[in-house]
Amino acid sequence: MSGTLVSDLRQSLNFTDAKGIAIPIVILAIMAMLVIPLPSIALDVLFTFNIMAGLVIVMISINVHKPLEFSSFPLVLLLATVLRLSLNVASTRVVLIRGHEGPDAAGNVIASFGEFVIAGNYVVGFIIFIILMIINFIVVTKGAGRTSEVIARFTLDALPGKQMAIDADLNAGIIDQDVALRRREEVAQESDFFGSMDGASKFVRGDAIAGLLILAINIVGGLVVGTTQHELGFEEAAQIYTLLTIGDGLVAQIPSLLLSLSTAIIVTRVTTSEPTTNQAGTQLANPNALKITSIILLILGVIPGMPHFMFLFAGFGLAIFAFFTDRKNEFLSNVKLDQAEKDIEKNDIELDWEDIEHVDQISLEIGYGLIPLVSEQDGGVLLSRVRGIRKKLSAELGFLIQPIRIRDNLNLEPMSYNILLKGAVRGTGKLELGRDLAINPGDITSSLEGIPTKEPAFGLDAYWIDHGQSDEAKTLGYTIVDNATVVATHLNALLRINSSDLLGDDETREILDKVSTRSPKLIEDLVPEKLSVSTVMQVLKNILFESISIRDIHTILGTLLIESNKTQNADELTELVRPKLGHLMLQEIVDLGDTLNVITLDPKLEQMLIASITQSAKVGEVLIEPNLAEGLLDSVKKEKDEAENQGHPAVIVVAPPIRPWLARMIKQRFSDTTILSYTEIPEDQKIKVFARIGISNESHEENQ
């Protein structure tokens, strides 16, 4: 048993990092100094180490290029402050217990510093020591603390702006994802650092106050102990304990002053690529300022009554230094200018269009948590699903959809995604990896144990459930899909709804070029003799806007060729083309041979709208009162919901003159509603009117 314990202990020690136990050991040592009496030689060693640590911290603070290079400074400041205070406690114990033995009782370091400052005059020495403490407490410590507060506040206030600047650079292509991630980490570290410095500055302030109190305690306590317990005279006790107190305070105040100075250097410097010494030296060596200062000193040197030698010597010395500094700066400027000219000649490449990054027509942005869906090595199927959607939609819509770009976006939550069309976010969603989405078709009342959510494509109620619950959910009637299918369905729905935005000038020309290979005469007679490419494109976009395929492109272009003699207006041409696509439009709504159930307008309402068109100054626009329009939309919603409850698609048939206007108005509110004119229904299609849309008499009278 003991052998196993020793073996385990040895093994644990072997795997212990020496750096990892350094700070715990320091903390334990500090705690020990607070309660365990220390011999004089130990105090000498520790006070020397304390001064050395203060000097090292100051040198590091001066030579760092930016504050974050010394990010451990708040922790170091805390440990150094507690170490100094623990030494104060230990030295106070020695001074009060053994101070009556003489100045060397508390160690050589304390005695030497005390005798050096006092220099035979206790009053002057005590005053000098008080001045040192005032400088530390009022000037350095208070200024550093106030600066820390201001910098912490401004750093936190500037945090959102810095994050937005990084996002802007990333979106503009100035930086890549790795650089953006590194800059975000630096911004976060900077905020944490200056927030910690604001708190750490309070340690320095408290340290200075504690030094003043310990000074008073040592003097008063030493006088009491010396005169009452060791039978020393008041004058003798005052000399001994004043010497020891000043020496003790000085060896403590020097590291304290160094720590305060380090804090002030860290929080007051401006971040540049240079250390503080180089930064200050370069800026202070200003030839113009040096020349003016030397002239002033020379003028003071010739004024009667002034110390001529000192002022003249300083003036001439500064003038010589300014002269050589000016020559040096001029030489460096010429060297930099020559180097810049060489760099320009070497890299004389002008900006061209290849340097401008265009917005992707279709893109899918994912959080880093969804990367496994894209990685085929990890079994991700999202890429193949996206390629399948593009192929299927291109075949159904009648033109080639541009490639869909997938990329990660660190600004998104890990499990979120965005669908962008032409750079604008048009859809967003959030997934749950390791779960399936159970979608309620709308008629299921039973709930599931899972995370309630909304299906992103159509807004249906759904639950994120564990894989083991899939069979139970299917039994209840839920539709079960995986994460990749959720994204693919959402993408497919958005592309269908916005198919008109996906057709541009390039796609239109590709369509015309493809048709010209089979029907060259058709394209030759139509474009550009009859219609421009932009007009043809607008007609095709109008057709796609109402979710109608342009696969029958020969019929569309043939009709445009015939009807172009009547009008060149794209909207009017669209209405002339649509009746030729009647069978194509209806096959998406009703099966062959089935009766088409339709909704019509009340005859009075329809006549009123037709009359409003003739009174409108703009062709195809209807002028009606807002209350009438709102009442009309309410009636459309009521009849649409009734049709869907009966299992029929919402199809509204109206007179041709008002169809374009009504379609635009209704599509804004109900995108899944089909608006047809009487002339667009084929003669062989059986129809049945099962509802009429009307308005109240009050709304009708308001429009009169």
What's the helix and strand layout?
Elements: H1 2-14, H2 18-35, H3 40-63, H4 73-98, H5 108-118, H6 122-171, H7 177-228, H8 234-268, H9 276-284, H10 287-302, H11 308-346, E1 362-366, H12 371-374, H13 382-397, E2 405-408, E3 416-421, E4 424-430, E5 435-439, E6 451-454, E7 461-466, H14 470-476, E8 479-481, H15 483-497, H16 499-502, H17 505-518, H18 520-526, H19 533-545, H20 553-563, H21 570-577, H22 582-586, E9 596-601, H23 603-615, H24 626-645, E10 651-654, H25 659-669, E11 674-677, E12 687-693, H26 697-703
Parallel strand pairs: 1-2, 9-10, 9-12, 10-11
Antiparallel strand pairs: 1-3, 3-4, 5-7, 5-8, 6-7
Helix pairs in contact: 2-4, 3-4, 3-8, 4-7, 4-8, 5-8, 6-7, 6-8, 7-8, 10-11, 13-15, 17-18, 18-20, 19-21
Question: Can you describe this structure?
Answer:
There is one protein chain. This protein has 704 residues and is α/β, with parallel strands linked by helices. The protein folds into four domains: 22-145 and 199-281, no CATH class; 285-335; 362-501, Glutaredoxin (3-Layer(aba) Sandwich), CATH 3.40.30.60; 590-704, Rossmann fold (3-Layer(aba) Sandwich), CATH 3.40.50.12790. Helices cover 64% and strands 9% of the residues. It is built from 26 helices and twelve strands. Strands 2-1-3-4 form a four-stranded mixed β-sheet, covered by helices on one side. Strands 6-7-5-8 form a four-stranded antiparallel β-sheet. Strands 11-10-9-12 form a four-stranded parallel β-sheet. β10 (651-654), α25 (659-669) and β11 form a beta-alpha-beta unit. It is elongated, with a radius of gyration of 43 Å. The N and C termini lie far apart (103 Å). 28% of the residues are buried.
